[in-house]
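Example with several molecule types.
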Amino acid sequence: MEWYWAGALLLGCVMAGMALGIPVAFTFLLTNIVGTCVFVIGRQDTFAAFIDRFMMQVPQVVDNAPQLITSFTLSPIPMFILMGSLFFHTGLAIKVFDALDKLLGKIPGRLCYLTVIGGSLFSTLTGSTMANTAMLGSLLVPEMQRRGYSKHMSMGPILGTGGLAMIIPPSSLGVLLASIASVDVGALLIAGLLPGFVLAGLYAGMITIMLVMNPDSAPSYEIEPTTWREKGYQVVVNILPMGFVIFLVIGFIVLGWATPSESASFGVVGVVILAVVRRAFTWGAFKTSLIGTIRVVGMVFFILMNSTVFSQLLSFSGASRGFVGWATGFEVAPLVILGAMFLVLILLGMFMDPVSMMLITVPIFYPIAGELGYDLIWFSLIVLMSLEMSATTPPFGLLLYIMMGMVKGTTLGQVSLAAAPYLLCDLILIIILIIFPMLALYLPGLMGG
Amino acid sequence: MEAFDKALEKVVKALAYLASAFIPCIFTMIVIDVSIRTMGITPPLFTSSIVEYGLLYIAMFSAPWLVREKGHVAIEALVSILRPTVQTVLAKFMYTICGLAALLFSYFALRLFLEAADSGQLDVRGVDMPYWAQFLPMTIGFFLVALEFMMFLAGLRHYYSYDLSEIKDEV
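Resulting C-alpha cells for the full complex:
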C-alpha cells in the first residue's frame, strides 16, 4: 500500500473514532486492531487463515502496549500534577497569592498583574495547565468581577498565564513530549524557563497597553495600606519558602544532583514539608490531591499505553517515512515547513486535546524536524508553545471551557476574544525563538547536555 | 444487575485507591534512592524497575474506575449536534466496540500472562522482573473495563452528556 493511503487509513481511523465520540484511548486501541489487520496480517486466502493470523498477531499488540508506559522518564508526570494539587488543597497557593497581593500596592489593573506574577510563580510549582488556570480563575475572577473589571480584562490574563505551566518547568506535558519524542527530558524542561519568563513579560506588557487604551476596563480602587514591615513578613513567610520547592525541582536538575525524574519526587516531598511546617497539611487534603492526580494521570497513561502501537504502525506501514520524504522534498525554506507544522498543530488543537495531538504528530513531525536540521529541544519548545496556544483556541480549547465554567453567563465568543491578545503574545514569543534560538538553548547548554 | 453493578463499583474503586497508593510509594522510593546515592552508598537496584512497573499498574488499575467516572476524555461536541435517536445508537455502538476490544485485550493479556508464568521468562531491567507481572494488571484492568462498558450498554448509566453546558459546569 502507498504510504499516503496507509497514513490516511491510520490517521483517518483516529480522527473518525474521535469524531464519533469514542474515548481517545479506545480510539487508539481500535485503530491498532484495524492497523494490525491491514498492515501486519494483510489479505489471506480464507477467513480461517485470517483468524489464525489474527490470533497470532494481536497478542503482539498487547505485548508491545506497555513498552512506552514502563519508562522511568514518565515518573515525573504524576509528581508534577500532585505538587500542584497539594498546593491548592492545602491552601498554600492562597497564602502565596495573599502575600503577592499585599506587595503590589495601589496600581491600575493590579489584579491583572497579580495574575501574571502569581501564575508564573505557580507555574514553577506545578506541572498542570488545567490546575494553574483553575486555581487562578477560582481565586481571582470573583474578586475582579467585584472590583468592576471588564470581562476581557478578568478572563484574558488568566487564560494566557494559565498556559504558562506548559512551558515553565516543571511541565507534565514537557515530560510527556520529551518521552514520546525521545529527547532529553531535563534539557527540555530547563529550556522552557527563560522563554516562559519572557512570555510572562509580554503578557504584562500587553496588559499595560490594554490599560492605556481603556483605563476603565480595570479600574483602580482603594486598598488597605500595607507597611514595609508587613510586606517583608509576607515575603519571608509566604514567598521565599516557595524557592525551596523550586530549588528542589529545578535546582537539583541544573546542579546535576538528580535527574528530572528524581527531582520531581523531591518537589512533592518539599511541598509536603512546607505544608507540615505551615500547619496546612491534612490527610484529607493529601487524599483529595491523590485522587485528583490519579484522575489525570490514569487518563493520560491509558492513552499513552494504547497509542504506543499506533506509532509503531505508522512506522511499519511506511507512512512516517513517506511523510518525511514528502515534506522535505519541497523546494522551500525549512521555515515554511516549520510554519506548516505549526498550523497543523493549531488546527488540530481546535478539536483535540494536547496528548492526542502529540501522539499523532510526534512520529511524523520529529523525523521531519531532524531532517531539516532543527535542534530537537528548540523544536520541542515550539511544539509546546503551539500546544499552549491550541488550548485557548475555539471551538474546543480546553482552557476556554474551564473559564466558561468559572464565569457564569459568558459565551465562547467572549472568552475567545479575551484570550486573543495573549495568543498574539505567544506568537511573538515563537518569532523571538526563531530569531534567537539561544533564548531556549542557553540554559540547557549550561547543563552540558 | 444493580447488585452486580454495586459489587463491581467496590472492586473498581478499590483498584483505583490502590493505583493512587502507588504514587506516594514511588516518590518515597525515589527520594530514599537518591539520598542513599548522595551519601556515597550504592542504592538498591530495584527502584527503577519497581517505579516503571508501578506506572503500568497506575494506568491499568485506574482505567476501569475512569470508565465508570467518565474520566476517559472523549470529544462529544460533534456528536452533540446530531438527533437524539442517532446519538443513542452511536452511544450503544461505542459501548459495544469498546467493551469487545477491551475483552479481546484482556483475553490476549491472560494468554500472555499464563505463557510467561509457565516459561518463567524474565524482563531484563535494573533488576530482572517476572515477565508475567506486566500482563497481570492488563488482564484485570481490561476485563473490568469491558464489564464497565457492559453496564453502560445495559442502560445503567450514560457515558455522554451530549450537552456541553453540563461538561462546562463540571469543569
